Amino acid sequence: MCVVTAVAYSTGLTILVAFASAAITLAQYAVVHPAPRVELPKVIDGNTAAVWADGELHIFHSTGVPVRSKGPDQFHLANTEGVDFDSAEHKPVWFEAVWRDADGTLFLWYHNEPGGVCQGSNLTLPRIGAAISYDNGKTVKDLGIVLESGDSADCDAKNRFFAGGHGDFSVIPDREHGFFYFFFTNYGGALQEQGIATARMPFADRWQPGGTVKKYFHGAWEEPGRGGRMTPIYPAAAPWQDAGTDSHWGPSIHWNSFLEQYVILMNHACCEPGWPQVGVYASFNADLANPAGWTVPWRILEIGDIAHKPGYYPQVLGLEPDGTDTAAGRVARLYVHGTSEHEIVFLKETPSITPTDPCDPSSGQSCPESIRIPPKQ
Question: Residue ranges per domain, the chain?
Fold first, then answer.
């Protein structure tokens, strides 16, 4: 089966949904089709950070205890070993993003879930920290927490995992190396601030990141990373405190050199207990500094087309010599929960097509009122 999915620029969305049966031309789209199965080493429980060093691809993956695997390419990864992380305070830990400097220094960012948040409960308040390595990730030094919620824990939350907090994220620098941009999930506080949000840190502050990350809120990058407010780029439709939340989460971002666009892949939990996955969604933007420029998330893979469940943590690994989770081209491998059974092909221009799923609430998508398919008369 070949799944064809289109993603339109926001300027075309009104036309797109006003006449759901009309043939239209969209700005860009992705074709997802089956490919031979590839499995990353060990168990995956989050974004898998990837970086090239000394002629080998290194990936960082975790279920709370981080490990590193390496090999000549994504299809031949082995040599899995534990990562020696020097922090006793910020464990368990998941390394979900990495950047390699020109001198070989690795900058890593992690998701941390502290214990003891809610008495008699396993609920936690995830937070995001920074770290550094001088030996390709064999040993890692903690640089401290850089993103943290300012909201109190909601120990009555019904989502089974989080009483709020920030986590399940990815990081990428802009093309000019002016800033690192964070895309993370906010799991608590007021509903209007829940969902996928963004923050940034000056590239020059990567060596000493404490206090330098600023969240995006109401059109400005001025709110502190620890405790500040935020305006989500993909707001939740139902709160994470509820058993049946309705929200995108777990963004994985890459720069697509073919499209010359940034692409986010993400999960969508809706609308029953246990975070049931609706499918894999994609969104595009040419300018990280313009959070309003992200296109409406569009489903590229339905949960029925993902053989391994629960089907979380979608991401690419590029096929180019420098391909990683943050760098890909026209064709990439699409991984879900550490397993790839599909290639994703990005195209700049589409033929005229009749969209079958622009934004239909009955399909499980979270549809803002302004872009819903009008009901049949």
Answer: 3-371
Tens digits of residue pLDDT in 93-103: 999 999 999 99
* Residue type present at position 347: L
- Cβ neighbours of 243 (radius 10 Å): 14
- Predicted structure pTM score: 0.88
Residues linked to residue 289 through DSSP beta bridges, in sequence order: none
CA–CA gap between residue 211 and residue 323 (Å, rounded): 31
What's the CATH architecture for 3-371? 5 Propeller (2.115)
The phi, psi pair for 5, rounded to 5°, reads -130, 135
Q: 71-92: buried (b, 16+ CB within 10 Å) or exposed (e) per residue? A: beebeebeeeeebebebeebbb
The DSSP secondary structure of 235-262, one letter per residue, reads E-SB-TTSTT-BEEEEEEEEEETTTTEE
Largest CA distance in the chain: 64
DSSP assignment letter at 281: E
CA-to-CA distance for 248 and 267, rounded, in angstroms?
5
Residue recorded with tokens 């180019």: 320
Q: How far is CA 310 from CA 35, 111, 177, 252, 276, in A?
A: 20, 20, 36, 17, 7
Cis amide leading into 271 (omega within 30) = yes
Are the beta carbons of 112 and 124 closer than 8 angstroms? no
For strands 84-85 and 139-147, give the pairing. Answer: parallel
Give per-residue pLDDT as tens, 235-271. Answer: 999 999 999 899 999 999 999 999 999 999 999 999 8
How far is it, in rounded angstroms, from Cα 106 to Cα 171? 13
- Local structure of residue 376 (DSSP, 8 states): P
Burial code (b: 16+ CB inside 10 Å, e: under 16) for 253-276 equals bbbbbebebbbbbbbbbbbeeebb
Residues in the chain: 377
Both structure tokens of 145: 């927490």
Q: How big, in percent rounded to 5, are the helix, strand and coil portions of the chain? A: 5, 45, 50
Q: Is 154 exposed, middle or buried (0-12, 13-18, 19+ CB in 10 A)?
A: buried
231's tokens: 């305006």
Between CA 165 and CA 256 the distance in angstroms is 30
User: Can you tell me the distance from the alpha carbon of 216 to that of 232, in angstroms, rounded to the nearest whole number?
Assistant: 8
What distance in Å separates the CA atoms of residue 316 and residue 321, rounded to the nearest whole number?
Answer: 14
